[in-house]
Design goal:
- By secondary structure, the chain is α/β, with parallel strands linked by helices.
- The protein has 2 domains: 149 residues, Rossmann fold (3-Layer(aba) Sandwich); 145 residues, Dihydrodipicolinate Reductase, domain 2, CATH 3.30.360.
- It has 10 helices and 16 strands.
- The strands form 3 sheets. Strands 3-2-1-4-5-6-15 form a 7-stranded mixed beta sheet, sandwiched between helices. It has a 7-stranded mixed beta sheet with strand order 12-11-7-10-9-8-16.
- The protein starts with a strand and ends with a helix.
Length: 347
């Protein structure tokens, strides 16, 4: 399948709009065919801006359309399960923003449906896997440049967050990036977690913020994750990996350093889009290439990866509910873990 892929985006909020603009202007071999959003006016405005063929408030309309080849789901987390299942039933490849589903049984339903379809249809939007700096760090780690990894320290800070969320939603919507990143980075599954609460900011009543997670992987490495979704000062993601013979760290990604008036300073972005623009573009391009049969899709997170990240998130939430006790991570649907056939074989 080498022809241009007609992509529909479901969800015209900040994330979906960004994906739609990327597809319409920066992705080879794809075009934006349709936009769906619960707010029809918002969908119509985005479709008109980007030249999409049609807009609708009904996501089933784009999934079932013969003018749509594949679907990118960027709607509310609670809608992911049914939309992904509908894409599988329609035989359409789907890139679903994280999390794949909020419930492990729903993740298992998706995996089972994909296996029944007989080919790879589902990808999950864990864009960190495409961040050039993180890809370089992982390559150095895999090459043994610092010996065996012993510790990792991850920081994930946002300017602000949706005030309607709670402490568990911080894990499922924000920290879940690190819950996928950690086992991917070490090529080792998460075996146990614990959740810890420092003093909480007074700016976000009703939610523990920040949170500190301890993650142990099967290789024995221990990762600390600080997630602070109302840090105010800027969007700031950091990572250091400490090994037996050295350390690897992500450099500050600011493009310009300003030296003026006896001071030196750099700027922080207001959200994830400037920091991860290259990662999102590479992720979507890889997904489109996989659909077209020119790439095997191996770097893309699949439905099993989505299931595993949700399983770890649920273990973290269980630790949260038990005052920080260490919780063993279980993967109860182990029989569903084999991945379906690669994209190219099913195209």
């Amino acid at each position: 399948m080498s022809e241009t892929q007609r992509i529909a985006v479901i969800g015209a909020g900040v994330m979906g709009s960004d994906h739609a603009r990327t597809i319409a202007t920066k992705i080879h071999g794809a075009g934006l065919a349709a936009v769906a959003d619960i707010d029809l006016g918002r969908a119509q405005a985005l479709a008109a801006e980007l030249g999409a063929r049609f807009a609708t408030a009904n996501p089933a309309e784009v999934i079932g359309s013969d003018q749509v080849d594949a679907v990118l789901v960027a709607s509310h987390d609670s809608t992911h399960t049914e939309l992904v299942l509908a894409c599988i039933a329609g035989g359409k490849p789907v890139l679903c923003e994280k999390p794949l589903a909020l419930d492990l049984d729903d993740c298992a339903r998706i995996i089972a449906a994909e296996r029944s379809a007989g080919r790879r249809l589902v990808s999950v939007g864990f864009s960190r896997r495409f961040d050039p700096a993180l890809v370089e760090l992982k390559a150095a780690l895999d090459a043994g440049e610092i010996g065996r990894a012993l510790l990792a320290h991850a920081v994930h800070r946002n300017v602000s967050s949706d005030p309607s969320g709670d402490s568990a939603s911080t894990v499922l919507n924000s920290a879940i990036h690190e819950l996928d990143q950690t086992p991917w980075l070490f090529s080792s599954p998460v075996t146990e977690v614990s959740w810890h609460a420092p003093a909480s900011t007074g700016l976000l009543p009703g939610r523990q913020d920040p949170q500190l997670l301890l993650i142990r992987t099967a290789d024995g490495a221990l990762t600390t994750v600080e997630v602070f979704v109302n840090a105010v000062y800027g969007y700031d993601v950091r990572l250091e990996v400490v090994g037996e013979t050295g350390a690897l760290a992500l450099a500050h990604p600011a493009a310009v350093v300003r030296d003026t008036a006896l001071t030196r300073h750099t700027s922080y972005p207001a959200d994830w889009r400037p920091r991860y623009a290259a990662a999102y573009r590479a992720e979507v391009q890889s997904w489109v290439d996989a659909i077209r049969g020119t790439y095997d899709g191996s770097a893309l997170a699949d439905a099993v990866d989505g299931y595993r990240a949700t399983a770890v998130a649920h273990a973290v939430i269980a630790s949260m509910a038990s005052d920080g006790r260490t919780v063993t991570v279980g993967y109860p649907h182990a029989e569903l873990t084999p991945v379906a056939e690669p994209f190219a074989q099913g195209a």
